[in-house]
């Protein structure tokens, strides 16, 4: 059974503010969202930062890989100017600070573990350890950890089995149920473009939560909910609000 929010702002504030930044998070919160998805990876010094791409160049100026820099170097980089001049000076958030802000403002988190190539185990273990300590004694508010990386999920499972996990897939693979059980996942997160109604029924019949990314059209969101999809994230927080799922049901 899905016990989590049903509509999440993707990467903090969708596409209305620079992704994976405090400005994005605040934009989502201004739109009423108290549930977000965001991406976390490790810097060179093993400190997790909030970032989607494993390399610089798109959302932060520069070149090379995120893993070539220490966290404080990344935290000094401009992660907002690419989006608009008014966001210049917005920085790459440190995961601990970002998560702590979410926690203290009642924003529920789906943390996507995005390991730099070759750092899957370390990423899953580190993020899970920090999240578990942050939510010790408050497990009902704990974040859901999702990843395309089975190794990252397994590491998270070993370090903090008490935190919920979800397998993230582009397309549901034939062995999806085996993978989900291997990491004791509570849910499957799938690209809605590849999901079929029969697959949605199968995931639900097996007792897993079903989450779709990234749903940006209200009609499509309503259709997916009609298929039994429990929840989804959206870039279009202006078109699809946090109460969307309760309104269409
Ligand atoms: O977690 C769902 C979604 O964010 C996965 O894709 O590339 O947007 O991180 P991506
Ligand atoms: Mg993501």
TrEMBL record:
Q: Which Pfam families match?
A: GDPD
Any single GO molecular-function term of the entry would be: glycerophosphodiester phosphodiesterase activity
* Keywords, alphabetical: Hydrolase
The EC code for this enzyme is 3.1.4.46
Domain GP-PDE residue range list: 5-244
Top-level taxon in the UniProt lineage: Bacteria
The protein's name in its UniProt record: Glycerophosphodiester phosphodiesterase
Native organism: Massilia aerilata
């Amino acid at each position: 059974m899905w016990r989590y929010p049903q509509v999440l702002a993707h990467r903090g504030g969708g596409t209305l503010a620079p992704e994976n930044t405090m400005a994005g998070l605040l934009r989502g919160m201004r739109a009423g969202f108290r549930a977000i998805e965001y991406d976390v990876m490790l810097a060179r010094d093993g400190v997790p930062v909030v970032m989607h791409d494993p390399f610089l160049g798109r959302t932060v100026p520069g070149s090379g890989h995120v893993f070539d820099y220490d966290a404080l170097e990344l935290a000094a980089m401009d992660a907002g100017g690419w989006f608009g001049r008014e966001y210049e000076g917005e920085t790459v958030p440190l995961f601990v600070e970002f998560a702590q802000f979410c926690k203290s403002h009642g924003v529920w988190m789906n943390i996507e573990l995005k390991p730099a190539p070759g750092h899957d185990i370390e990423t899953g273990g580190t993020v899970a350890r920090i999240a578990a300590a942050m939510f010790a004694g408050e497990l009902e508010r704990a974040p859901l950890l999702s990843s395309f990386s089975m190794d990252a999920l397994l590491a998270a499972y070993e370090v903090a089995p008490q935190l919920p996990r979800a397998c993230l897939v582009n397309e549901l693979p034939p062995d999806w149920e085996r993978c989900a059980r291997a990491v004791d996942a509570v849910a499957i997160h799938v690209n809605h473009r590849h999901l079929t109604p029969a697959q949605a029924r199968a995931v639900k019949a097996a007792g897993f939560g079903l989450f779709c990314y990234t749903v940006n059209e209200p009609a499509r969101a309503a259709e997916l909910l009609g298929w039994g999809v429990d929840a989804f994230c959206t870039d279009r927080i202006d078109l699809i609000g946090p109460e969307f799922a309760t309104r269409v049901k």
